[in-house]
Amino acid sequence: MAETTSQPIASATQSKATAPEAAATAAAPEAGPSTTGQKEPVVVLVIGMAGSGKTTLMQRLNSYLHSKDQPPYILNLDPAVSHMPYSANIDIRDTVDYKEVMKQYNLGPNGGIMTALNLFTTKFDQVLGFVEKRAQSVDYVLVDTPGQIEIFTWSASGAIITDAIASSLPTVVAYIVDTPRTTSPATFMSNMLYACSILYKTRLPFILVFNKIDVEPHDFALEWMADFEKFQEALAERGRDENGENYMNSLMNSMSLVLEEFYNDIRAVGVSAMTGQGMKEFFAAVEEGRKEYEADYRPELERLKQEKDAKAEAAKQAHLERMMKDMGVDKAPKGNPFGPHPRNEREDRYMDDEGGDSEDERIDRQQEAEEEADDHPEVAPEDDDVMQYGGHDEGMGVWPRPQ
Ligand SMILES: Nc1nc2c(ncn2[C@@H]2O[C@H](COP(=O)(O)OP(=O)(O)OP(=O)(O)O)[C@@H](O)[C@H]2O)c(=O)[nH]1
Ligand SMILES: [Mg+2]
């Protein structure tokens, strides 16, 4: 796959929102170790407006990684894609037929895609199992999402999938921008506000990927992101109507102030899915995102998990205390919680008078256990039982089931 030299990323180098120069020269870095010392791949969630070039970029990333001998693991979550220029390891279309879903549930195209994604989500634990199984052998997991961005970003299933992936593996969001279609300040701002809302919703490391820079270089975007006044000037300039009146209202101006904060938290790269420009910068940004995940997201995840466990434990304790109170017992008994049953019904019926097993009884019990094990040997699953996926077979079945 031909890879061209990357487009220099404009003058806007002061802001964190620009591509890091040092990283720009690096090749696709190796996926790093997790806190447990095991190698973990990084998951790249490719999200963007319809037609921004997500699928084409997936193909480009795939071929770039193949050329680096780091073939990725690929998930396609777009049930409506008709032509996929790469082959996915797990493809939602193998599991759900969205056209059939539309017919059977009397839905329009968006409802069909949404329902297909919902159905797929009910099996996502299995999908995650397949991904985790391959975690040791791949460096990148790439995820293509449905064309209609809101189906993934605002649906319950999109959130469940994102959270499930992000709590299992280092994950970054690559937000794809159709650069030639965002040259007007108003469109640019709308797109950035959308990106901002996704960042705050997912809280994951975020990369703004200006795609199609073979058609329109993204320098203007970097300039607007780095210099807030430049953007306001452009807004004022292009917002004038034929009488010279500025119809851009103050709301737009204040919104652009909000965005200034957002730009500080993200990195931006320019790529062309068509020509392959900017691949190195892209993977350098992914690597930074992975580090950010380890530094910020994972500790927060651990904290939330501990908080949740503590809450569950407290609820259990409260429940037990309530039950004890209802039973008229002040405190939970220390030993056998089920109280003083007649001796022949008690679990300790094997004990001798001194409170311990007699030698004969102990031997009897051991023999009983061995016989039990012989009667019910554990059966190791055969390879054929293990559900394979990814174009190899269709272990998860198909929805709706063929009539
Ligand atoms: N010139 C140019 N065209 C591109 C580039 N990337 C994608 N395209 C074109 O943009 C169009 C949309 O590309 P897709 O990859 O289908 O976009 P998508 O975001 O996956 O589209 P949906 O999934 O339908 O939302 C196609 O015609 C692509 O050929 C690029 O870097 N440069
Ligand atoms: Mg697509």
TrEMBL record:
<feature type="region of interest" description="Disordered">
    <location>
        <begin position="327"/>
        <end position="403"/>
    </location>
</feature>
<dbReference type="GO" id="GO:0005525">
    <property type="term" value="F:GTP binding"/>
</dbReference>
<dbReference type="InterPro" id="IPR027417">
    <property type="entry name" value="P-loop_NTPase"/>
</dbReference>
<feature type="region of interest" description="Disordered">
    <location>
        <begin position="1"/>
        <end position="37"/>
    </location>
</feature>
<comment type="function">
    <text>Small GTPase required for proper nuclear import of RNA polymerase II (RNAPII). May act at an RNAP assembly step prior to nuclear import.</text>
</comment>
<keyword id="KW-0342">GTP-binding</keyword>
<dbReference type="Pfam" id="PF03029">
    <property type="entry name" value="ATP_bind_1"/>
</dbReference>
<feature type="compositionally biased region" description="Acidic residues">
    <location>
        <begin position="369"/>
        <end position="386"/>
    </location>
</feature>
<feature type="compositionally biased region" description="Polar residues">
    <location>
        <begin position="1"/>
        <end position="16"/>
    </location>
</feature>
<keyword id="KW-0547">Nucleotide-binding</keyword>
<keyword id="KW-0963">Cytoplasm</keyword>
<feature type="compositionally biased region" description="Acidic residues">
    <location>
        <begin position="350"/>
        <end position="361"/>
    </location>
</feature>
<keyword id="KW-0597">Phosphoprotein</keyword>
<feature type="compositionally biased region" description="Low complexity">
    <location>
        <begin position="17"/>
        <end position="31"/>
    </location>
</feature>
<dbReference type="GO" id="GO:0003924">
    <property type="term" value="F:GTPase activity"/>
</dbReference>
<comment type="subunit">
    <text>Binds to RNA polymerase II.</text>
</comment>
<dbReference type="InterPro" id="IPR004130">
    <property type="entry name" value="Gpn"/>
</dbReference>
<comment type="similarity">
    <text>Belongs to the GPN-loop GTPase family.</text>
</comment>
<dbReference type="GO" id="GO:0005737">
    <property type="term" value="C:cytoplasm"/>
</dbReference>
<dbReference type="InterPro" id="IPR030230">
    <property type="entry name" value="Gpn1/Npa3/XAB1"/>
</dbReference>
<keyword id="KW-0378">Hydrolase</keyword>
<protein>
    <recommendedName>
        <fullName>GPN-loop GTPase</fullName>
        <ecNumber>3.6.5.-</ecNumber>
    </recommendedName>
</protein>
<dbReference type="GO" id="GO:0005634">
    <property type="term" value="C:nucleus"/>
</dbReference>
